[in-house]
# Entry
Amino acid sequence: MGGKLDIEKIAYKHALKNASEYGKAQAGAVVGKVIAEAPDAKKDMKGTMQLISKAVEKVNRMKKEQVDKELSKFTFEEKKQEERKITLEDAEKGKVVTRFLPEPNGFIHLGHAKAAFLSYEAAREYSGKCLLRFDDTNPEKEKGEFVDAIKKDLAWLGMKFEKEIYSSDKMPDFYKLARQLIMQGDAYICTCEKEKVNELRGLGKACGCRVNTIETNLHAWEEMLEGKLKKGDAILRLKAEPDAANTVMRDPTLFRINTAEHYRQEKKYTVWPTYDFEVSIADSLDGVTHALRSKEYELRDELYYRIIEKLGMRKPIVYDFSRLTLKGLPLSKRLLKPLIDEKKVSGWDDPRMPTIRGLKRRGILPDAIRNFVLSFGLSKVESEPSIDALLTENRKLLDPKAARYFFVHEPVELIVDGIKKWQVHLRKHPTENLGERTLGITGKFFISKADADKLTKGDRFRLLDLCNVKLLEKGKILRAEFAGNEGMEEKRIHWVPEEFIKAEVLVPSELFLGDKFNKESLKVVEGYCESDCSYLKKGDIVQFVRYGFCILDDEKKMRFILTTP
# Structure
């Protein structure tokens, strides 16, 4: 490919596509497409640019209906992006078992979505299984309502797990294995005060409890289980190395007393395992072959394996990946919860929040979240992308299926003389068959103040998808005259007709600027939209032309949320 006729045809079809998408073709936007399809065109760029300019001029003289008709004669090959594969060590098809372990102490967010999707897709890659195991061994913070919320959010994300498990159901196993460690001389009961324990660990020194006999430790363990000791009176510690270079290994705590009522086990247990003990044992018992977790636990991998080795249990392979961080958007309950408590945001589903329910309300699609979080893979490399990358993924998915409507913010009245009264039927999508919407034309229009401010007397511009006009007077009300339908004026302005609906759009942005809460993180934009928007239902996502993709949040108030600019 590369002859003059070929290049001329390729330039023509891409000029048509550019004009259909943006109202007018631009040579600069077409040239890259032409060269990508016909690399030989680079050999004579002067001649190629002449052919492109000729095609652009031809297309820009056409009416929109003619552009769309001509465009339908061509096909376009979309480059398929190969998904990045997740590669696991010693993984066999059909034998891989992964897990996602949310703690039911709050609502899950983008960081949890990354962990969930990596484990889920890794299992799928090897035709294996992914388990959903609730890490629920801290009775003070966990609630059944969070279990239900997490399951609902994961289902919305499209995940179907092989099995649903609760770590707290394994308490008899945990107790049995803790006793085994004591019997082997690999764990001991420490009755030192918490401050003393922390001080000695910091100094790399052992406490006197470390030399207690196995019998003494067993007796104290039984007292803990029987409720004879209070919270803080005693803990079970692993007998590791008090002076280890990795401070995690300085005789870490394995069990502690907590008498709070558990949402699932009620008052059945008062001695609970730490995460380090629970996760290693549960992974081994559940048949997990590959345990994926964020890099913040990397120093704890040694402890994970030590516990399993001491008990002679099967070892999973642990993978550590970088924790997701976003610019201006904290993924920590420690930072997010105060925003709710102080009423700086409306709740966990506030469209500014990085929670799954907040993203859902904002109109972010599950596949956009999936594509975004999987783009980082299992890399340990730290980065701090902005949410723009997620919004770009969302835009790609919405563009082919979102119906188009007009919305003008800060509306300014425009009177056009010499235009006939009629009803115009406009496509809801430039290329997809999503039907039409009807707008009644009376000569009275509204345009956005931002567009009105740029106009001067005598300017010619096009009311998008309708006609050309010439501005006669510029005041509080703009007055213009009909200037025909032929050609495409360089200035193109979207509009709503005399019959409109009042609407507002919530515009979310970064929650934090540096380390300070951004008081301007949610703006309200008021304006008018087409009357056909009255047929929309809550949750419908549309594209307001030249404004952005928006989701209808409240049908009665006609309140939208800007999903993706």
Observations:
- The chain has a mean pLDDT of 93.
